[in-house]
Amino acid sequence: MKNLFRYHQWLALSFAAAALVFTNGSALAASAKEIDREADAALATLYETTPVAKKLAAQAEAILIFPSIVKAGLVVGGQYGQGVLRQDGKSMGYFRSSAVSYGLQAGAQSFGYAMFLMTDEAIEYLKSSDGWEIGVGPSVVIVDEGLAKSLTTTTGKDDIYAFIFGQKGLMAGIGLQGSRIKKIDVDE
């Protein structure tokens, strides 16, 4: 009986953590200047640690940058972060990335990711969809260390390349599949 109570207590904590992370964005909304500043710092870090990302940036039609995604959960989890779409060095819109997950998981972590949109079709899909779920729509390739060593601007033929960076915390597994990206309004 005591173990059942603890299980329900942990389950309730998991839902609370997921609710905190997976909000509608209004409670966690950052200003455009904050998001832009954080995106600049995140890209600088990514380019220092992963030179192929800087090379791809020169070929990309646009870059969607999420400087910080927070993920937390225990059995049930959620993740949330805000980012910016940059085209020709200009901020073209602000987005949120969110996901809910369930399964064998416990902990909390933060990470960032940048998606290099290589085609006009990928940009149009992002702009025209009312919430884009990664894994549905344009093809997304997660660039890990192995792929980064062999990827060049001539071998890169996919719609979108995603780089995950700045991982901190204790939680097994990071994935973008199932993350939902949606345009948001932010204060200047």
Radius of gyration: 17 Å
Sheet having the most strands: 6 strands, mixed
Oligomer: single chain
User: What separation lies between the terminal Cα atoms?
Assistant: 53 Å
Task: Encode the helix/strand succession as letters.
Answer: HHHEEHEEHEE
Mean pLDDT: 78
Structural class computed from helices and strand pairing: alpha+beta
Strand content: 35-45%
Helix content: 25-40%
Give the helix tally: 5
By DSSP, the count of extended strands is 6
What overall geometry do the principal axes of the alpha carbons give?
Answer: globular
Short structural description:
Helices cover 33% and strands 40% of the residues. With 188 residues, the protein is an alpha+beta fold.
Description:
The chain has 188 residues and is α+β, with helices and mostly antiparallel strands. It has one domain (2-184). Helices cover 33% and strands 40% of the residues. It has five helices and six strands. Helix 5 links the parallel strand 4 (140-142) and strand 5 (160-170). Helix 2 crosses helix 3 (51-59). The longest helix is centred in the N-terminal third of the chain and has 20 residues, at 2-21. The chain is globular and about 40 Å long. Residues 15-27 and 146-155 have low confidence and may be disordered.
Give me some keywords for this one.
single chain; 188 residues; alpha+beta; 5 helices; 40% strand
Write the layout of secondary structure elements.
Blueprint: H1 2-21, H2 32-49, H3 51-59, E1 62-87, E2 90-117, H4 120-128, E3 132-133, E4 140-142, H5 145-150, E5 160-170, E6 180-184
Parallel strand pairs: 4-5
Antiparallel strand pairs: 1-2, 2-5, 2-6, 3-6
Helix pairs in contact: 2-3
